[in-house]
Description:
Layout: H1 11-17, H2 20-27, E1 46-50, E2 56-59, E3 63-64, E4 72-73, E5 81-85, E6 92-96, E7 102-108, E8 118-122, E9 127-131
Antiparallel strand pairs: 1-2, 1-9, 3-4, 4-8, 5-6, 6-7, 7-8
The protein binds zinc ion.
Zinc ion (ZN) binds near residues 96, 98 and 101.
Amino acid sequence: xxxxxxxxxxxxxxxxxxxxxxxxxxxxxxxxxxxxxxxxxxxxxxxxxxxxxxxxxxxxxxxxxxxxxxxxxxxxxxxxxxxxxxxxxxxxxxxxxxxxxxxxxxxxxxxxxxxxxxxxxxxxxxxxxxxxxxx
Length: 135
Ligand SMILES: [Zn+2]
């Protein structure tokens, strides 16, 4: 795995590092099938890092059960996640600030009982869990 903050790579470099499914989602902004993700119903304690570059993105303490079919977080690490409005003007894409990898989308004001009332809807393929006990 690359060091955090190693930044931008060429498409070819990413293809060599990532699995085909990771490449499809992280680099081509794909979406994993609803309810199939490794972390959808996962509740381990630790940190989720970017599957592309290893930058810490979310703490497990910010993960909540939204029932949407993908892992949901109410808050990322400060500065770790970029937000970009989708061209359709309806959704906001979230990406890893270090490598630009596509994570998913963020939704606000849905009424979830969380401190931020935001839902970061993230593909399991885009993140990697590291247990608190192994850090
Ligand atoms: Zn990254």
